[in-house]
Specification:
Keywords: Hydrolase, Signal. Helix content is 18%, strand content 26%. It is built from 10 helices and 29 strands. The protein is globular and about 80 Å long. It binds alpha-L-arabinofuranose.
Length: 614
């Protein structure tokens, strides 16, 4: 029986409640939604980004082709360039399997080059079966200048390679680029259409960007401002605007290089294009994501606070203001209408974070009292850091707190009432990241059940976004993810479809209702109920086993079972839920998955589960 209160005394649901969180993780930007097809276009990859990188990563060269870092460079923020000797060539294999082109479509090529005298350069696009379009020619001459050409693909291929070949005169080249002309909304330096359209189809109320862990820390090593042109700078928005050839690339927290071709201007533009409120997050100068470091450099803090004020001017200031003028120069004289801004992400040191957050907030509110400055509750959904962070957020009258959690589907089912008891007079909640651990229909269903709890509490939970948003097949640091892609295709997970249902048919007001007489589940569940084993990337010693049933499992004497989810920590270890009786064809459970193993495996695991009630 369902009793519905027709008086309409439930919470009002804002149109902006459900949004998306974009982070450059899983190669979501370069090699993902950013439509550039050339990998390492500016020869800036370095071991600081990833120990396996060199400035020639992504390239094969023939003849005399040297990467140089000297005064002959393109500009001070673009350090390396490729010096091609007479007859030398450089071939780029794109991201993952190669450069994908579609028959009949046009691809815009450009490069910057410099030469003493006239240096003809032949540009060709081919795969193992031969040319993919007519070869092009540009002639570089004199100082650094940009040269352009266009290809029309006469075949479809996912394994294309782009070659630049010098003729009889040596030439220096940089920023070698190839874009499909058919980008999302046809924008230059634009986004991959299929991916952007999948995000748009969610009808997001907001777009949180650019992270995540990548905001505060430039690398896994932790907080490091870097000096000079060292890598590992935190994500600083000013590095990401202006002409792409002047955007200094940086190490990404997730272990690769980020070109910043998708930068703050493009993020704001994308938010506008999909009708979402932009919600940028700036570094708070306290590390999060497992690191414990806070800056004690007041000048640095001052600079970051000023950068944040400048960011607001970039987004909202008139075209005549210093930073508004930069936005206008890039093509958007009208303001972007920024109303919310996050400071920090998952800081482990709540007291240090709050001290710095308050300085950011005071400076922002003094100039822009209408901007909502969003704080956070640290990395966990409960525990000492979480409690302390919330205490500080409450004590300091914070307007909105960003919470993050990734839990089992069972947790989501059991915690539907999480926000029922939140203080109605305290800070509002921005559930900036959440997901149950899997991409099965069962996971999506658990999330849907949970979202009914978010909506019931829409007076407190003002914003919510599933995370992460995108994952490139074969370049995954974190899963599950909402939308998956390879070089030619993209597909939404079950979780994506569930999000889409909620996001495209969001109600205006909660109508309180109560169900009674719910039939009890009875009878034993026997046989295989399905487990998904999940080995994460080399970056994590984190292996989990998820019961797909989501029901309460009886404890048995399986070795690691202690009635709780266990996260594996050591090499070769793994975890079980609730000590469920697990039979494996493999005798030694510790050898099932080795930490650091990045592949998918199928195991013949059987679970015998009996509901407690049964
Ligand atoms: O969404 C993936 C990561 O999860 C985010 O970068 C971080 O904020 C959280 O720990």
């Amino acid at each position: 029986t369902i009793d519905v209160e027709t008086a309409g005394s439930g919470a009002t649901i804002d149109d902006s409640m459900y949004g998306v969180f974009f982070e450059d993780i899983n190669q979501a930007a370069d090699g993902g939604i950013y439509a550039e097809l050339v990998q390492n276009r500016s020869f800036e990859y370095e071991a600081a980004d990833n120990p396996g990188y060199t400035p020639k990563t992504g390239w094969d060269t023939g003849g005399t082709a040297e990467v140089r870092d000297d005064d002959g460079r393109l500009n001070a923020r673009n350090r390396h360039y490729l010096a091609l000797g007479a007859g030398a060539s450089a071939t780029n294999g794109g991201f993952r399997t190669g450069i994908a082109v579609e028959e009949g479509k046009t691809y815009d090529f450009s490069l910057w080059a410099r030469a003493d005298g006239d240096a003809p350069l032949e540009i060709s696009l081919a795969d193992g079966d031969g040319a993919l379009g007519a070869a092009q020619k540009v002639t570089a001459s004199g100082k650094w200048a940009k040269y352009e050409a266009a290809f029309t693909a006469d075949r479809t291929s996912a394994t294309g390679r782009l070659t630049v070949k010098a003729g009889g005169t040596p030439a220096a080249v940089d920023m070698v680029s190839l874009f499909p002309r058919d980008t999302y909304k046809g924008r230059a330096n634009g986004l991959r259409k299929d991916l952007a359209e999948k995000v748009e189809a969610l009808d997001p109320g907001f777009l949180r960007f650019p992270g995540g862990c990548l905001v505060n820390t430039g690398s896994h090593q932790g907080y490091d401002e870097g000096s000079g042109w060292e890598r590992k700078r935190s994500y600083q928005w000013k590095d990401t605007i202006g002409p792409v050839e002047t955007r200094a690339t940086n190490a990404n927290f997730w272990g690769y290089n980020q070109s910043y071709g998708l930068g703050y201007y493009e993020y704001f533009q994308f938010a506008e294009d999909i009708g979402a409120m932009p919600l940028p997050v700036v570094p708070a100068l306290v590390t999060g994501c497992g690191q414990n470091k806070a800056t004690d450099d007041p000048e640095l803090l001052k600079r970051h606070i000023q950068d944040t004020l400048d960011l607001i001017e970039f987004a909202n200031g008139p075209a005549t203001s210093e930073w508004g003028a930069k936005r206008a120069e890039m093509g958007h004289p009208e303001p972007f209408g920024l109303t919310h801004l996050g400071v920090g992400n998952e800081e482990n040191l709540p007291d240090e974070f709050m001290a710095r957050f308050k300085e950011f907030r005071a400076a922002i509110e003094a100039k822009h009292p209408d901007i909502t400055v969003v704080s956070n509750s640290g990395p966990d959904d409960s525990g000492t850091v979480f409690d302390r962070a919330w205490q500080l957020n409450r004590d300091n009258d914070v307007a909105m707190v960003d919470e993050h959690y990734y839990n089992s589907p069972r947790w989501f089912l059991e915690n539907n009432n999480r926000y029922d008891s939140y203080d109605r007079n305290g800070p509002k909640v921005f559930l900036g990241e959440y997901a149950s651990q899997g991409n099965t229909f069962g996971n999506a269903l658990a999330e849907a059940a949970y979202m009914t709890g978010l909506e019931r509490n829409a007076d407190v939970v003002k914003l919510a976004s599933y995370a992460p948003l995108l994952a490139g097949e074969g370049t995954v640091q974190w899963e599950p993810d909402m939308i998956w892609f390879d070089n030619t295709r993209s597909w939404g997970s079950a979780n994506y479809e569930m999000q889409k249902l909620f996001m495209t048919s969001t109600g205006d007001q909660v109508v309180p209702s109560k169900a009674s007489g719910t039939p009890a589940t009875s009878g034993p569940i026997t046989g295989a109920v399905g487990l998904s084993t999940w080995a994460t990337s080399a970056a994590y010693d984190d292996v989990r086993v998820t019961g797909a049933d989501g029901g309460e499992l009886l404890a048995d004497d399986f070795a690691a079972g202690d009635g709780k989810w266990t996260q594996a920590t050591g090499a070769g270890s793994w975890a079980v839920q609730d000590g469920a009786y697990v039979q494996s064809d493999e005798a030694a459970e510790n050898t099932l998955v080795t930490a650091g193993d990045t592949g998918w495996h199928d195991y013949d695991l059987k679970v015998k589960a009996t509901k407690k009630s049964g």
